Backbone:
């Protein structure tokens, strides 16, 4: 954990010119690792910094969480953690700024996420720009609660971008199970069910922005998940042979356009690794 903290500190110091070193250690050590006592964020966080490929095959982007140094060395700034995902079909590559601090070094493409990044708790501006032109895509303010984790998605069609936020109530699923939730982020698809192929229906009748709570699923197994039009056997999207590991927490997300005309915007089903214990 100390080695990971140093990696994070060195990276933050480089990107954000945060100083002194002691302040950043206090900021991360006393706040961010309060969260990691519940879940191994430090592992997810370090993977993001090292640009490893995420569970769904999309590269997890390098992060720069620009936290302010506390004036009082004995004071710990409250933090939260947030993951941003571009779920808006046909959207241009993006840059994300939280309270005027750049989050990503590489453009965020459709389907990619940042991994969890630590931010100051409280009200933050959340601004998204086109990477190539710096055109403003969307800007809003969000109140992030201390020691709470969030997933924020850019959703809807390019002509009507919206932010959609979920609070990630993540707990250990135990040693023999995983934990999964489902979210429907397709703006023009009908209500859907999440189904294990030739097996159980896990989630029923979720429309656009509909989601489930995290629920247990037997781990260390391969699953083929299907999204069906609600109440029917009509398959809209499939995620084949997904390895579900025990002790992991996942979000299975349905996205794309029912009216999509290319492989880039057609209906799809993917998985995000939120945490592991």
Residues:
């Amino acid at each position: 954990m100390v080695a990971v903290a140093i990696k994070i500190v060195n990276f933050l110091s480089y990107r954000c010119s945060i100083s002194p070193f002691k302040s950043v250690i206090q900021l991360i050590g006393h706040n961010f690792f309060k969260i990691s006592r519940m879940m191994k964020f430090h592992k997810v966080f370090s993977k993001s910094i090292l640009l490893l490929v995420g569970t769904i095959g999309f590269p997890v982007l390098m992060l720069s969480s620009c936290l302010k140094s506390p004036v009082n060395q004995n004071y710990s700034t409250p933090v939260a953690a947030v993951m941003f995902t571009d779920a808006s079909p046909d959207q241009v590559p993006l840059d994300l700024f939280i309270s005027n601090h750049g989050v990503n070094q590489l453009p965020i493409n459709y389907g990619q996420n940042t991994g969890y990044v630590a931010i100051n708790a409280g009200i933050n501006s959340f601004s998204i720009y086109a990477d190539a032109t710096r055109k403003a895509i969307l800007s809003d303010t969000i109140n992030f609660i201390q020691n709470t984790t969030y997933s924020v998605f850019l959703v809807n069609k390019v002509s009507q971008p919206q932010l959609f936020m979920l609070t990630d109530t993540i707990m250990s699923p135990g040693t023999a199970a995983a934990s999964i939730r489902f979210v429907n982020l397709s703006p023009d698809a009908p209500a859907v069910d999440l189904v294990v192929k030739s097996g159980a229906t896990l989630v029923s009748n979720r429309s656009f922005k509909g989601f489930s709570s995290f629920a247990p699923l037997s781990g260390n197994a391969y699953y083929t998940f299907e999204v069906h039009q609600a109440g029917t056997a009509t398959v809209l999207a499939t995620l084949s042979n997904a390895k579900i590991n025990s002790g992991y927490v996942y979000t299975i997300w349905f996205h794309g356009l029912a009216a999509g005309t290319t492989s880039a915007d057609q209906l799809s089903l993917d998985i995000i690794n939120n945490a592991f214990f």
About this structure: The chain is about 15% helix and 40% strand.
